[in-house]
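Appendix B, record 7
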Amino acid sequence: MIDRILFVKGVLWLSEVWQYSREDVVRHILSTLSKRDEDETNLPSDIVKPLLNMLRVFDKDRMDAETLLGRLLSQGLWKPKPKRVWDTRIGRRTDWGGTAVGQLTGKAGRYRSIIMPAAVDHESLSALATLGAAWLTEIEAARTLLRDAGDLTSDADLTERRNTLEASFQHLDVLVQPTPLTASVLHKLSHVEGGSLLVDLIGRLMGHHRRPLSHDDAERLGMLCVGTMAENNVNHMLEITATLAVVHGLVCCGWQKSDESPISQSRRPRDWYYRGFLLCLPGSDWTVEIGKKRGDNEVAAPNNGDATRSTRQHLFGSSVGAWQPDIRMQFSRPNGPDFWIVGDAKRSDGLVYPRTTGFPALMKYMVAFAHKIGWSVLADGTVLQKIVNGIPMPSGLLFCKQGIESIEVRREKLAFVEGFNIEDIGKFEKESCGRLFDVLKAISNALAPQP
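Structure tokens (predicted):
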């Protein structure tokens, strides 16, 4: 099936070009598949467990590392106590007074030495606490997913691990700042009692974390997305593919990956798993963030005298905050104002599906966030589009498996919407192609510095 083929190509492109590791890609998949609203279906356990296993949440090395890390955190800061031992060699720490006494007590030919064990210093403790906090966040995220899936046994096991690791933080009596686990920190920890094994375990875990996504991994993710999921989650695979196609198309149009990608630090699983894509347009001050985020705080727009507000109330009533587009492209520049383009991915059950279901759903998002899109409807039905450098911007992108032609026949009334069948989104090749690329190229040209 073409949608799974493009999904596999998309996640492989993400790993190769975006330098996402296998675990990064899995987290991105979980971001999209996780339940976000009450009316969405929980992921079943036979989907959640394989994905969490790919993140090594239940790996023995990971659980052993948590135990050792908890012990070191429980010790807190401590100063090394010197140890005196007998040695056959002279060294920098030879205790000549103790050696002389030894000569008189039958220790001839041996030398008394002083050994100073490594200390758990502030930097090392902060790095351990930072790693422990990240593991706690991941455990809590996994626990929520498994509880929602009805796997109470795994939920209980993870709860015990969380409580044990959290207890070790109670012994910290210093202000801990986020600190990376650098090579120098690992070197110091390797000389601490119990630290050498922890360093080995962390090294193995980090090696797995940096592992690139293989073709077999991508195929497995594709099978998980369509094999045993609830029917409505098939839309999510198209959503992932469409999002990656937008990012890929913009890269082919000259956009570049920004130095900082927006990664939520929230402890809520749905937020923590979220990863967006941040791109910048060379030669301009425009950036674009592409991803899926709730827009609860963005829905209520001021009444500017247009008919959009009444249309919004008619479509949503009081539940407008629960709506969120599958794709949100937020274009920003330092001096503002920002503007959005929203997208929706719909599984097509028939050739007229885009017109009867897909387009009305996209319209709801466009109306809900009209003030962010720069799109409005006058009382006479006239649609006002966002204009950038004299070029009208599309307000919405509709992705379907087939049948987009059913709304194309009304193109004169839908100039603010661009629709794509799955074959229109490109093939994730070095040079993009298809109608999606043409639309993204027109947007990029409008935002590029004008001569």
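Remarks on this record: The chain has three domains: 27-35+215-447, 56-76+123-209, 83-115. The longest helix spans residues 122-148.
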